[in-house]
């Protein structure tokens, strides 16, 4: 084992835990959170799992059972979850200066400078601090590599007797647990690779660790060799403390109601284009092409099916909402056909470039005044930050309260931490 040490801290049933923070009545009750348009279960508390609710199970199939069993059901509240994630990571940064925010509920921390004898105590202190300051319960896994830290986190979750912490930099714990983790529970090993590894005689993480690296590479390419080395304690993956430059960006949504007319489709795509511009400006990137797509639903088997996409090229790279909306509306009008019930639309772009360094169009070929446009977009973004996203939008994107196509959040809790008009209220005794 090397002297390096990583901790992976993971919020338990994170979306559900965020809901519980602001409603103490939910403690010990089964809780689930649904995907966009209240489609399927994407987060479940242990109590909900015990009732047999599976990840990804469609809401319409479990609706009656949830009502009978008293399951508390919520629509996704991404504004709340994102803000709570930021608060949790602020706590992590008080424990380690080097952090990789891996996902909304998971972060890797470099704790190599912490003495081996103090690592478990640090993890327990961090868990207690996160719980006290944010209300979010976590589990922490520690390992000499990111793969082993992830595996340790899995062990900590599955074994309550560990108290939420597992340290695989401890040789005794490493030897005890590595033989008890099934192949399919190793980080990055999906169903296909699970079958390949089982065909090689691997039943546990220890079996994968003991594979010849050449055999692992042949079965799973360089990923397999790296996996074996990581399980042996050889760090092949460093922390990504800086987010990689975005290569592409997409804004796609399923409609809450089927769209059958051109005007409504234009409104939806314009709203997606406006959001795309906001995302690109946040990273000072631009694009010189956008793909617009929309399609019907395969579930409407009694109706004609259609799926269409088109690429619209811009004269020069841009992140100006006006330019993107105009281009996307052109794509819609070019490909629209009546007589279909469309279920989803989106705008996608790839090969993003830093806007300041991008090549300009020749005069007369669509070049815009970037300085003037940047000032206008800065004002637009400032208004939306201050008064809430969607406070100021292009007219083509429609008025937010009247968007009949927009995503359903019929059971969404208040956005307690990001909207002044939805702050939690404490009633006087």
Structure, explained:
The model has no long low-confidence stretch (mean pLDDT 92). The longest helix has 21 residues, at 262-282. A five-stranded mixed sheet has the order 5-6-1-7-8. Strands 9, 10, 11, 12 and 13 form a five-stranded antiparallel sheet that branches. It contains 13 helices and 13 strands. It has three domains: 1-166 and 414-429, 2-Layer Sandwich (Alpha-Beta Plaits); 179-242, 5' to 3' exonuclease, C-terminal subdomain (DNA polymerase, domain 1); 248-398, DNA polymerase, Y-family, little finger domain (Dna Ligase, domain 1). 38% of the residues lie in helices and 20% in strands. Helix 11 packs antiparallel against helix 12. By secondary structure, the chain is an alpha+beta fold. The chain is globular and about 70 Å long. Helix 6 links the parallel strand 7 and strand 8. Belongs to the DNA polymerase type-Y family. InterPro entries: DNA/RNA_pol_sf, DNA_pol_Y-fam_lit_finger_sf, DNA_pol_Y-fam_little_finger, DNA_polymerase-Y, DUF4113, Rev_trsase/Diguanyl_cyclase, UmuC. It catalyses: DNA(n) + a 2'-deoxyribonucleoside 5'-triphosphate = DNA(n+1) + diphosphate.
